[in-house]
Amino acid sequence: MKIEHVAMYVNDLESAKDFFIKYFDGKSNDVYHNKNTDFRSYFITFSDGSRLEIMNKPGLVDHDNKDRCVGYAHIAFSVGSKEKVDELTDRLKTDGYKVLSGPRITGDGYYESCILDTFGNQIEITV
Question: Quick check: 80 pLDDT over 70?
Answer without folding.
Answer: yes
